[in-house]
């Protein structure tokens, strides 16, 4: 049984301008100790899917209109809110992309870390403070005993992200969702944060969902990748196979747009056009207005997820014509 099993999930937002279909039939699984990277441009539905899994989706205007979210065999969407709240933090946790906004600016980091133990474990204030220092040590924050009473603004961006990781780890959850955990960090700090996450995952045998738009970030840490576009998963593959031979034009466009050191002075490749409005997703394949391989069939017939190899699928009618197709 997978640790997390998302099945045919649909999420819509009811707005003044109409219904925005943010998630359209997303399915994926995460096993114990496995890392799933969810890739895609902004607005592809990555974070909305994660919020639905965590149970923190703003409803209204958001609404889960279909599907199942099974965690350790239990359908979370059927749980009452009180039971769902006990899952968050204790068994499933989330690392948000903007640590400065996610942390309370008027409370010390030690107080915020210790709150997990006070609320969920009934710890005293002294015990919670000691646990906060221990957590800060675990994520390699120097001088944690002296800095436990500091406030979020007194830490650098990389240190704040480590505090967010510590907060997520506090109760040793089975699954962590990291939503753009390296946003706005320089390359060196990105590497340190990703290495820390990978080390902690191996230590605790957690499942990890890594949400990002940066293919370079996930290359060394992910086991498998789900690529999203306009609320759908358009390709699933083990990480090495996807980098070696993408089976969807959108995935190939993302890979081709990564700057390379052997192309100094050359023009960067970019995917033409813009992602579609979720209020008016094009008929057929949503990627067809931007796709160099698009044909008439793509404009009228929505492609299913074709099985293109062991553990691989692609939502492209013409995936066999991709260079180095599986």
Quote the beta fraction.
15-25%
- The termini sit apart by 28 Å
Fraction of residues in helix = 25-40%
Average of per-residue pLDDT values: 89
The counted number of beta strands is 12
Largest sheet: 8 strands, mixed
What shape does the CA trace take?
Answer: globular
Strand order of the largest sheet: 6-7-8-3-9-10-12-11
Structural class, from helix and strand content?
alpha/beta
Low-confidence stretches: none
Number of helices: 12
Helix/strand order, N-terminal first: EEEHEEHEHHHHHEHEHEEHHHEE
- Rg from Cα: 21 Å
Characterization of the model:
The chain is α/β, with parallel strands linked by helices. The chain has helices at residues 46-54, 81-87, 99-102, 109-121, 125-138, 144-147, 157-169, 187-204, 215-218, 239-244, 249-256, 296-300, and strands at residues 4-15, 18-30, 35-39, 62-71, 74-75, 92-95, 175-179, 207-212, 224-229, 232-238, 306-309, 312-314. A hairpin with a 2-residue loop joins strand 4 and strand 5 (74-75). Helix 4 crosses helix 5 and helix 7 (157-169) runs parallel beside helix 8.
């Amino acid at each position: 049984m997978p640790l997390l099993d998302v099945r045919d999930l649909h999420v819509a937002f009811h707005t003044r301008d109409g219904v925005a279909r943010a998630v359209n039939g997303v399915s994926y699984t995460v096993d114990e100790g496995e890392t799933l990277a969810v890739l895609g441009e902004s607005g592809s539905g990555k974070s909305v899917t994660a919020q639905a899994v965590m149970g923190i989706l703003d409803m209204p205007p958001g609404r889960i209109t279909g599907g199942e979210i099974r965690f350790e065999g239990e359908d979370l969407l059927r749980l009452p809110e009180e039971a769902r709240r006990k899952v968050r933090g204790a068994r499933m946790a989330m690392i948000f992309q903007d640590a400065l906004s996610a942390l309370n600016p008027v409370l010390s980091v030690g107080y915020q870390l210790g709150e997990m133990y006070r609320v969920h474990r009934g710890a005293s204030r002294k015990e919670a403070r000691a646990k906060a220092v221990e957590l800060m040590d675990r994520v390699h924050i120097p001088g944690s005993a002296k800095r436990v009473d500091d406030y979020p603004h007194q830490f650098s961006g990389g240190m704040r992200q480590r505090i967010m990781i510590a907060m997520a780890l506090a109760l040793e959850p089975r699954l962590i969702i990291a939503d753009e955990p390296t946003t706005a960090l320089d390359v060196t700090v990105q590497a340190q944060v990703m290495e820390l996450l990978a080390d902690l995952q191996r230590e605790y045998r957690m499942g990890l969902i890594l949400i990002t738009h940066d293919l370079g970030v996930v290359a060394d840490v992910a086991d498998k990748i789900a690529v999203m576009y306009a609320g759908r998963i358009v390709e699933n593959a083990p990480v090495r196979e996807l980098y070696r031979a993408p089976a969807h034009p959108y995935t190939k466009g993302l890979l081709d747009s990564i700057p390379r050191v052997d192309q100094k002075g050359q023009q960067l490749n970019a995917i033409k056009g813009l992602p579609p409005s979720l209020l008016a997703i094009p008929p057929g394949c949503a990627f067809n207005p931007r796709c160099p391989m698009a044909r008439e069939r793509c404009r009228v017939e929505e492609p299913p997820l074709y099985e293109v190899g062991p553990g691989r699928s692609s939502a492209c009618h013409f995936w066999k014509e991709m260079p180095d197709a599986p």
